[in-house]
Design goal:
CATH topology: Aspartate Aminotransferase, domain 2
Largest sheet: 5 strands, mixed
Distance between the termini: 46 Å
CATH superfamily: Type I PLP-dependent aspartate aminotransferase-like (Major domain)
Order of helices and strands: HEHEHEEEEEHHH
Strand content: 15-25%
Helix content: 25-40%
Shape: globular
Number of strands: 7
């Protein structure tokens, strides 16, 4: 049943020019898995981004601060090799040696309602992140028959979402995105009351 997820992963990796890809249930969870995998303790966050990013830092007890950056289509999560590329749709745009996170939320060019993906550089990264997304499981056999050794987070992409992605992928490759996303598309989060209360 999950072979279709792997097929979608492979086709997305090929489109972006990445060695490997790991499908997730959202871009935010893709970023969270990368932060956990890299054991990030401190980072910076653009003041203009989606609100789930600083909330994720709080969730993981990461020491973070705001950063004013005028980004287009993607940005690095400061002090890491993790790239928030939720709004980037461009062939062969994978940045070597990064963990690059994509979004398939309904406003994105490849609109699946929900979903995300991590583009990565090597097989070890791919295998560990895949297990983390699937409750620590190796999908080659039933989990009850395994001695689980990796903490997992139940952030996997469903086969139904992957199937929808594959059905829309051909036209998404042909069509150009209708919008180039930048930092200006997001409010200044540092001025929101919730973050004033945190600090």
């Amino acid at each position: 049943m999950f072979e279709i997820v792997e097929k979608f992963e492979n086709q997305m990796a090929d489109f972006y020019g990445a060695p490997y890809a790991v499908a997730t249930d959202s871009c935010t969870h893709a970023i969270e898995l990368c932060l956990r995998y890299k054991r990030i303790k401190a980072a910076t966050c653009p003041s203009h981004t989606y609100i789930s990013i600083p909330f994720t830092f709080e969730k993981l007890n990461i020491h973070w601060k705001w950063e004013d950056t005028n980004w287009n289509n993607f940005y690095y999560i400061g002090n890491t090799n993790i790239v928030d590329a939720a709004v980037l749709w461009k062939a062969n745009s994978y940045i070597k040696d990064t963990l690059m996170c994509l979004s398939f939320q309904y406003k994105k060019h490849l609109s699946l309602g929900r979903g995300g993906m991590i583009l990565c550089n090597n097989e070890n990264e791919r295998n560990t992140l895949k297990k983390m997304s699937y409750d620590g499981r190796d999908l080659s056999r039933p989990w009850r028959d395994q001695n689980i050794e990796t903490i997992g987070y139940h952030y996997y992409m469903t086969p139904e979402t992957a199937e929808q992605g594959l059905s829309k992928l051909t036209s998404a490759k042909i069509d150009n995105p209708t919008k180039v996303w930048t930092w200006k598309d997001y409010p200044d989060l540092s001025k929101m009351q919730v973050f004033n209360e945190i600090y």
